[in-house]
Write a structure and sequence with these properties.
about 130 residues; 3-stranded antiparallel sheet; alpha+beta; 3 strands; single chain
């Protein structure tokens, strides 16, 4: 059941989206259109990273511990990895990752931090007896 979902949301912290002037509505439509041209399901995905850009020796320092725990979790959920792309008008694009496992949520991670977690988990799993 590996399903991938793409969801979009539009938020305005300062005003209700009802009764706004035509110029503001046009500006919102242009911003949404520009965003979807890059990040939409059929967008060109110009903002992307490659794991090869983050060599092991230069990966960010993320402190976390992986250890065996004989207890069974009270809740067994499918691990969930989410990617949040946000951009304020005229601002830089921010992309953050979050990992959720058994109702435990990570902090928001940059791509470099996400790669560091991936590598540490890989090292741990490669050292486990079969």
């Amino acid at each position: 059941e590996n399903h991938f979902h793409v969801n979009y949301s539009l938020g305005d912290l300062h005003a209700d989206s009802e009764g706004i002037p035509a110029g503001q509505m046009q500006r919102m439509a242009c911003i949404i259109s520009d965003f979807l041209k890059v990040f939409g399901e059929n967008g060109d995905k110009r903002v992307c990273w490659d794991i090869a850009d983050y060599p092991q020796e230069s990966q960010p320092d993320i402190t976390f511990e992986i250890k065996e725990d004989g207890r069974l979790p009270a809740i067994r959920t499918i691990p969930w990895i989410s990617k949040r792309i946000s951009q304020e008008e005229g601002g830089e694009t921010e992309i953050e990752y979050c990992i959720d496992v058994n109702e435990t949520h990570s902090e928001e991670l940059t791509f470099g931090e996400f790669v560091a977690v991936y590598r540490k988990l890989g090292e741990f799993l490669n050292n486990q007896p079969l």
